[in-house]
Structure formats: structure tokens, C-alpha cells
Amino acid sequence: MRTTQxxxxxxxxxxxGSALSRSLAAGNYRLLLCTSNLDKATAMAEDIRKGNxxxxxxxxxxxxxxxxxxxxxxxxxxxxxxxxxxxxIREVANQKIVISIANPLNDTYDGLVTAPGTSAAEELQxxxxxxxxxxxxxxxFAADFATPLIxxxxxxxxxxxxxxxxxQNVSELVSTVGFNPIVAGDLAASRTLEDMQxxxxxxxxxxxxxxxxxxxxxxQ
Length: 220
Ligand SMILES: NC(=O)c1ccc[n+]([C@@H]2O[C@H](COP(=O)([O-])OP(=O)(O)OC[C@H]3O[C@@H](n4cnc5c(N)ncnc54)[C@H](OP(=O)(O)O)[C@@H]3O)[C@@H](O)[C@H]2O)c1
Fold this sequence. Notes:
Layout: E1 5-10, H1 15-24, E2 29-34, H2 38-51, E3 56-60, H3 63-69, E4 72-75, H4 82-89, E5 97-100, H5 120-127, E6 132-136, E7 149-150, E8 153-154, E9 156-161, H6 164-176, E10 180-185, H7 190-207
Parallel strand pairs: 1-2, 1-4, 2-3, 4-5, 5-6, 9-10
Antiparallel strand pairs: 6-9, 7-8
Bound molecules: NADP nicotinamide-adenine-dinucleotide phosphate.
Keywords: Oxidoreductase
Protein name: NADP oxidoreductase
GO molecular function: oxidoreductase activity
């Protein structure tokens, strides 16, 4: 069994941050829940331990210190806040895996704020040039974490990145929380993954399409 890895979850009390924290607590990870609302994160950590006394989970309001301690950093904040988060963690995130889950949606949820030919993940990589940015979880919904299944089969979770070892590590993390990891390509594939989620959201707005069902590529 591999050694326990520490994961800093920035934005841990948000929709995605809390879903990820609760699911990851079942794995062999030490979780550092980073938030500006320490009371809320402390209550969440206690609640996680109540359901799983073996869970290694701590709340902190110091994102930089937690990121310094962590092997993996999950940036679970709105895209607009990523520049500020990157500025805070840049010095301590060197050579570490940084997971970008963001969908850079505009205010009306019908377009992306990123320029053509780039993605939120690639922009984060530019801000953290010495980190291994991996795209993951942007095509899964916070609500899916409770039951990551469609018709009894695992929901697919797409991953993109440039570092093979980091992709392998994040694939294991994705499996731990119950999704089926699929490596979509290098970090530039994040453009497609972010477009895919925009499409789901637009179809839902137009046709009430069941976007909560997530993605499942059917194969024999
Ligand atoms: N919701 C979904 O189903 C879903 C699915 C896929 C991807 N995503 C992506 O996941 C990310 C988070 O979405 P969400 O729905 O979880 O949002 P959310 O519920 O609003 O939570 C975002 C968290 O970000 C933190 N935050 C905001 N500004 C910050 C800043 N300047 N510095 C540090 N932390 C900051 C807040 O934590 P504090 O309380 O500590 O400030 C907040 O709890 C977004 O990029 C979104 O595109 C969401």
C-alpha cells in the first residue's frame, strides 16, 4: 500500500470542496480543509470523523501552510478567485500536483470567460509554472459524489494533464471517490472538458436536460 498522501482542499466548505472532502475521507489520505470560515470547516471535520472515526481530517484557515504540508492541492474555488489563490500558494506548490476543477462560466452561464485557445486549467498552470496542474472533476457535479453511478455503472470522470505520474496519481484519487477515471489527453484537452460541461449546463437550461446524470461513455 502506498504511503498516506496529504491533500489540501482550498474552498473545502463550498459545494465541491465539501463533496470532495467527504468522499476522500474514506481513502488513505490526510485531508487539510482550507477555508476562511474556520468554524464551518471544524464542524465539517467533526462530522466527517463522526461517520468515519479513522478519517484523517483537519480544518485550517491557513491555505499557504496547508499547501506547504500537502502532496496534492485541490483548488475548489470559483475561477475568478484562482489568481488570488495561486498568488498565495505559488511558493509552496512547486513540483506538487494541483487539481483544477473549475468551469470558467460567465455570469449568465451561457459562455466561458476564458479566451479561445486556452482553459481554466492552462491559465492556472501559467500562474503556477512549477506545479503539475491536472484537470479533474469539472464534468462531475457536487451532487453526484453521494452516488457516482448511472444505471449501476460508475460515472466517468475525465482527467487531463502533462505529467504521466501525476495523471496516474489523480486517477487513483478519482477511483477512491467512486468515479471511473478516463485520461482525456494533455492539459490542452481541458478546453474540451470545460466546453463539455458548458454544453451540459446549456442543454439543461434549454431542454431541462438531466445534467445531474453526469457523463457515461458506453462501451461493451
Ligand atoms: N458545483 C458543482 O457541481 C461544480 C461541478 C464541477 C466543477 N465546479 C467548479 O468547482 C469550483 C467551486 O464551485 P462550488 O460550486 O463548490 O462553489 P461554492 O459552493 O461557491 O464554493 C466555493 C468556495 O470557494 C471559496 N472561495 C471563494 N473565493 C475565494 C478566494 N478568493 N480565496 C479562497 N477561497 C475562496 C469559498 O470558501 P471560503 O468559505 O473558505 O471563502 C467557497 O466555499 C468552481 O470553480 C466550479 O466551477 C463546480
